[in-house]
Amino acid sequence: MLDNVKIGAKLIGGFMVVCAITAVIGIVGITSTSRMDTASDRMYEYGLKGTTTSDLIKQDHLYMARAYRNMVIFNDKTSLASFQSVIEKNAAEIPTLLDTLSKLTTRPEVQTLIREAREQFRAYVRDGTAFSELAKVQYSAIPE
Fold first, then answer.
1. pLDDT value at 53 more than 70
2. Per-residue confidence at 4, pLDDT binned at 50, 70, 90?
3. Is-contact 61 90, C-beta < 8 A?
4. Average of per-residue pLDDT across 16-36
5. Which of 11, 40, 97, 109 shows the greatest Cβ crowding within 10 Å of its Cβ?
6. What DSSP designation does 141 have?
7. Cα–Cα distances in Å, from 111 out to 24, 90, 122?
8. Gap between the Cα atoms of 133 and 127, Å rounded
9. Phi, psi (deg, nearest 5) at residue 14
10. Do 125 and 91 touch, CB atoms closer than 8 A?
11. Is the pLDDT of residue 125 over 70?
């Protein structure tokens, strides 16, 4: 059957077959890349973002703990105001970060852990507020 076809037509036919195979491979590659992009977005949204948010919560808590500790060490009113601003800033950020973390998961056990962390944080802030009031009394006794 192909014996009667001229060599030019055979070459063109072969080229068309190679082009068709290349087109199929290209289409499969583009759709696979699109699926990988979607999967990487999902992985960031639910994996990395949760980890980053947890790290930010830990960092903000650490800043608050340092500020509470420094209230005892330093004994001037300027430092007290500085430490209180750090505490207030981080105390406002942590609930927002906990909300973000809560939105990233639907697992009941993780939601329970987040609720417990929220309650513990409220108790921490309450105790820290009492401690700050004691520090203010200590600082008020210092002469200007």
1. yes
2. confident
3. yes
4. 94
5. 97
6. T
7. 46, 22, 17
8. 10
9. -65, -40
10. yes
11. yes
Per-residue CA distances from 131 to 33, 61, 69, 89, 125 (Å) = 55, 16, 10, 17, 10
Instruction: Find where tokens 């036919």 sit.
Output: 13
Whether the Cβ atoms of residue 118 and residue 78 lie closer than 8 Å to each other: no
On the CB side of 39, how many CA atoms lie within 13 Å of its CA?
6
Asked whether the beta carbons of 68 and 13 are under 8 A apart, the reply is no
Does the predicted TM-score (pTM) go above 0.85?
A: no
Instruction: List the alpha helices (DSSP H) in the chain.
Output: 7-43, 49-73, 77-103, 108-140
Say how many CA atoms lie within 13 Å of 68 toward its Cβ: 20
Q: How many CB atoms lie within 10 A of CB 87?
A: 22
> 131 and 71 in contact (C-beta within 8 Å)?
yes
Q: What's the rounded Cα separation, in Å, for the pair 39 and 42?
A: 5
Amino acid sitting at position 30: I
Is 67:83 a contact under the CB 8 Å cutoff? Answer: yes
If you count them, how many residues does the chain have?
A: 144
User: Are the C-beta atoms of residues 56 and 97 closer than 8 Å to each other?
Assistant: yes
Q: Which residue has the tokens 């087109």?
A: 23
